[in-house]
Amino acid sequence: MVALCTVTIVYALQQPIIDVSYFAKENGFLQSQVVQLYNRSTETAHASSSKLSAKELEELKGNNYIEVNEQESFGIAEGRNLFVIQVESLQNFVIDRTLNGQEITPNLNQLLSESAYFSNVFQQVGAGTTSDAEWMTNTGLYPQGMIPTANSLSGKEAPSLARTLKEKGYGSATYHADDVTFWNRDVLYPVLGYEEIFSIDDLPDIKKVGFGPADEVLFNFAANELPRQLETYERIYANIVTVTSHTPFEMPESMQYLDLPAEYEGMYIGNYLQSIRYADEQIGKFIQELKDQGIYDESLIAIFGDHSGMHGTLVTEENQQLLSGFLGHDYSLKEQYTIPLIFTGGNLFEQSKMTRLGGQTDIMPTLLALLGAEHDEPMMGHNLFQYKKNLLGMRYYLPGGSYIQSEQLYKAPGAKLPGVLYDLKSMEERSKNSEAKKHIDDTQTLMNYADFLLKDYMEE
């Protein structure tokens, strides 16, 4: 028995742990524990093999590397203020769509006429959900996956969007209508280098919905801070994280803008659409406020969703049927995990819809390139305006080892279900082939490098 156990452990040590539950199922619980302990003890020894140059990283994604300052979009928004609006639970399937003749996102739809809209961007958050999205947007690095990244930070300062922009005269501020200690944001925000931090303690204690003051309170507060900030700094980077469109999406009647069909009333999907319609209204008002203050034409604005809202056990079979009717087809993993990413600003973009693959790790590199700012530290993402091909990893919401590639989505095997390869465009199942095997290997290389970069900011 001991000899057999020794043999199985030796075999298991030769296998990579991509998904813990699947590894334990295939190799045994004891073997899984031994391999995890061994891997932790040898992390430092193997760290050097995880390094990738920017050129090597881009080649993994299928692109020829171009120096940032030589890319076509570099500096087209140089000198502009930056507003990053991270919208709670905003998924891509609601954009430019109607229900009984009513637009779900009329303000965003109108904004598309002067925006670059990326419609094929995937969430990459882990267990830290919204805070993981903040981490990626402000570092260009992956989150941990099974543990919220913010909960493991050592407090060491990270090279970030705020710090790189500070070198170009930007002051930075972040706004969120929640307790700053939630998801350890009291640690996360100093790590990210924000000069001004505004939370529930700073906002007016009015119009509470869910976690705190409604989005309209948040946006009004941020708008009122701008005149002072623009006198204090050469230009401003404002990070605004909305919260009202958070599950369970139950909105007071006065904040409901949609006249829902009877079958949607009281349903999870109905509540979701109402909350997104509300968030859209407040974004529209904030954009108008920027125009009224004369700031819009001097700004670059990025709007995106943090993660899916329509997922989990609350999406019952009845909700699934309503979703299928709303979409005109079955609700797939692609609809579940894609978020809109919109870049806009006065006289900056002509209307364009970009279908090339992107992820949340790509947001920071894209913003910096547009602003004409070079970042001296490695990032996992790239400038979406430059590169057509991509390779993304995702943990937590998909089993470890899963990938999204420009033509494929691979859901790796878990403890209960086999792996499935999909055509990314049609979401039809495909047979696993040598190309998929290469993407699996490349994704493992990519994620090893992601962990290598992340480790420097984690507690020992």
For this entry, give a set of tags.
460 residues, alpha/beta, 9-stranded mixed sheet, 5-stranded antiparallel sheet, 15 helices
The fraction of residues assigned to DSSP E strands is 15-25%
How many DSSP H or I helices? Answer: 15
Which class of secondary structure composition applies to the elements? alpha/beta
Rounded to an integer in angstroms, the radius of gyration calculated over CA atoms is 22 Å
**What best-fitting shape do the alpha-carbon axes yield?**
globular
Low-pLDDT windows of residues: 9-29, 32-48
Overview of the molecule:
This protein is of the alpha/beta class and 460 residues long. It is built from 15 helices and 18 strands. It has helices spanning 2-13, 20-27, 29-41, 43-46, 54-60, 106-111, 129-139, 161-166, 185-192, 215-232, 268-292, 317-327, 333-337, 363-370, 434-455, and strands at 81-87, 98-99, 102-103, 115-122, 170-176, 196-198, 208-209, 212-213, 235-241, 299-305, 338-344, 352-354, 358-359, 391-393, 403-405, 408-411, 420-423, 429-430. Strands 1, 4, 5, 6, 9, 10, 11, 12 and 13 form a 9-stranded mixed sheet that branches. Strand 2 and strand 3 form a beta hairpin. Helix 1 crosses helix 3 (29-41), helix 2 (20-27) crosses helix 3 (29-41) and helix 10 runs parallel beside helix 11 (268-292). The chain is globular and about 55 Å long. It starts with a helix and ends in a 5-residue tail after the last helix.
